[in-house]
Amino acid sequence: MTSMSPDYPVQLEIDPAASQNRLKVFLRPILTIPHWIAIYILGIVAFLVWLVASLSIVVLARYPAGLLRFSIGVARWATRVSAYGGVLGSDESNTYFWVTGGFLTDKYPPFTLGEAPDYPVRLIVEEQVEGRNRLTGFFPIRVILAIPHYIVLMILGIFVTLATIVAWLGGTVLGQLPDWLHDFIAGYTRWNTRVAAYTALLVDEYPPFSLN
After folding, report:
1. Residue pair 10/125 in contact by the 8 Å Cβ criterion
2. Strand partners for 189
């Protein structure tokens, strides 16, 4: 199992590469359509929550607990689906642009905002309700501060896109991703997840520049 440093408040646990059903790998982009429809609808709500949360943080230094749990739930759902079949896009707040690579697991993701402890990809976010940073709670500042990450992730994303294509073809033919390919996509996923959580106001800590 691979995971991020326990020092950072966003954890992404990913089980090691395992065998996958070749036909399901080939059909993966189609199989994820119902999930992406649900996530698109949830993403609209998450965008509004993002705006309300930003105002609350700036004024009260607080992210309302119920809204935070909802946002984390959307992030969990999107992360599981993205890791299963790749991502289709993102909304303006980056609230569900969590993963660009896919094919990290063959297990079909559940339709839930809640935790799924038995699922091979598990996003864990420390709930930070009180004492939030007012200055960086103003959402445009988060986006500006994350620009160095976006530049690096954009460059790495070119290779991840190629790796995802290889993973789809390789999974269809071989029924399993090579460990090195799985680890590379997983590493990029962890990095992108930390940055997405930061810009979505889920945490205040600036994300590290690391695939690990």
Report:
1. yes
2. none
**Exposed, middle or buried: residue 211 (CB in 10 Å: 0-12, 13-18, 19+)?**
middle
8 Å CB contact between 71 and 46: yes
Residues in the chain, total: 212
209, part of any domain = no
Task: Please name the amino acid found at residue 53.
Answer: A
pLDDT, tens digit (0-9, with 9 covering 90-100), for 160-182: 888 777 777 777 777 777 888 88
pLDDT for position 114:
94
Q: What's this model's pTM, rounded to 2 decimal places?
A: 0.86
Domain span holding position 161: 10-199
Which of 69, 58, 174, 210 lies closest to 129, judged by CA?
A: 69
Q: How distant is the alpha carbon of residue 7 from its chain centre?
A: 18
**What's the rounded Cα separation, in Å, for the pair 51 and 145?**
18
